[in-house]
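Limitations

Structures in this collection are predictions, not experimental determinations, and the ligand pose is part of the prediction. Treat each record accordingly. The example that follows, with FE2/S2 (inorganic) cluster as the small molecule, is included so readers can see exactly what is and is not provided: the inputs are given verbatim, and the output is the predicted complex.
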Amino acid sequence: MAVDSAGASVAERVRAVVEAHSTDRGALLPILHGIQAEFGYIDPEVVPILAAELNMSRADVHGVITFYSDFRSEPAGTATVRLCRAEACQSVGADKLVADAEQVFGVKVGQTTPDGSVTLDQVFCLGNCALGPAAQINGKMYGRVDRSRLVEILANGVQQ
Ligand code: FES
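Predicted complex:
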């Protein structure tokens, strides 16, 4: 990942994201979101670059990345399935949906299938509480999701 197809190095792209947030106070979180938006994930090689740019220790940057489940350290699958596990969705079967999804995809929450087709994530409220269990797949919201609907959505193909 040292150089992309346009010839920009990782360090240059990371610095551009940092520069875009140069006036933010407490900018690490928005920068990390920016890095993930730029690359799709936060490669461990980015950590020392960020630490140097922000005058922080590598351990501190790494600690923030690992604390927040929104950040991933490796590329996501073709479809990112985020299942809500907050209270309203739990009351209508979210835990069963998560268990079903783990069985269907053969991975645990936070993991990507070996073929790279699906990343399974959990989230705590998608703002779709009245239509639980709620799911977000590649950014698109779905309500009243159960095992068969989840399989059907993915079988019909999801947009990147
Ligand atoms: S509790 Fe699931 S969308 Fe709000």
